[in-house]
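Re: thymidine-5'-diphosphate structure - here you go.
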Amino acid sequence: MQQDSNRTPRKILITGGAGFIGSNFVHHWCKSYPSDRVVVLDALTYAGNKLNLASLESNPNLKFVQGDICDRTLVDNLLESEDLDTVAHFAAESHVDRSILGPGAFVQTNVVGTFTLLEAFRQRWNKREQPQSDCFLHVSTDEVYGSLEADDPAFTETTPYTPNSPYSASKAGSDHLARAYFHTYGMPTIITNCSNNYGPYHFPEKLIPLMCINILLGKPLPVYGDGQNIRDWLFVEDHCRALDIVIHRGKPGETYNVGGNNEVKNIDLVKQLCELMDELAPDLPVRPAKKLITFVKDRAGHDRRYAIDASKIKRELGWTPQETVAGGLRRTVEWYLANRDWWQPLLSDEYKSYYQKVYSK
Ligand code: NAD
Ligand code: TYD
């Protein structure tokens, strides 16, 4: 990214910075703005992993704090002691299948946690005399818009919210709060609604890492329902660039949709992953890998199709994705092949018990 020599350094709180997108964003920010102060707040749930930030351990401008975004005292202390002016809020319970098994944690972290951060930031922002250059970026999902039929137009920023899962409903609630804090208090919040991400550090429960790892282990590849559900895939580094641009140039109170313009049916995506693994992994237990594809019982309330219209962020802020699905999937498969030491320890007893609950139906 091109550096702006007149740029004012920021002091940024990154919540959920040990998770998948959050950790990619921490790497992006530390590389792009090495003089900025970066504070990561993460509870290290099953999805958080300090190893995602291991290569930044000796960075004196980065501070990692293990803690809960619902802990108001902790958040107040961090905002004040570090004099933070920017929040990039990633922390969330993020997996639809887990939200079906137990929605409570989703309401707590996604709704109550976001509310706690917004209130703490409002108090701090008032004390800082309300600079409009401060920013509370609320990172959200396209899933709040509900499900599309095959020939519906893609989601725009004005598509009505119709969340269908406890996950998307809790994210919708948090989006509404972020929006209300701008409307009511003038606090500079910005919301982004992004499509499905993929890339390095993706926890092995989600579709793409789960398929990569099961292929490497010779285990069945569980495709829900008829495999015809469609997602719009975005390489995680493209998402991080979009969020960077939104923090620097986005307009307070606005929403920006972020998407890859890459609609793919689940079954086609899984087949592409199988082909890449056949090509790149020399010692697969089962070959060709597509022999492992197994159709399983559908997810309850499974949204059929998501698609993002990202023309606003392109038109107003000049962002477009740079990675193609073919290129991004290849990089992702190569990463999982090169980083067995990262994912192998994550297949813990907790992971196995979760797996059993979801896939033994
Ligand atoms: P993730 O599940 O990989 O990471 C979530 C992180 O938040 C973890 O490090 C976890 O430890 C932390 N966390 C959870 N509860 C917390 C709490 N109470 N306090 C502090 N930390 C807590 O999620 P992700 O895929 O990186 O998603 C990040 C954000 O982006 C989420 O808000 C999600 O809704 C949004 N999003 C994700 C995608 C996607 O495809 N993954 C797409 C669009 C938007
Ligand atoms: P997921 O990665 O859970 O993201 P989301 O549900 O938030 O879009 O799943 C992506 C798609 O893949 C979704 O349509 C559900 C499907 N899927 C499977 O078919 N099998 C699986 O084992 C998983 C985890 C997902």
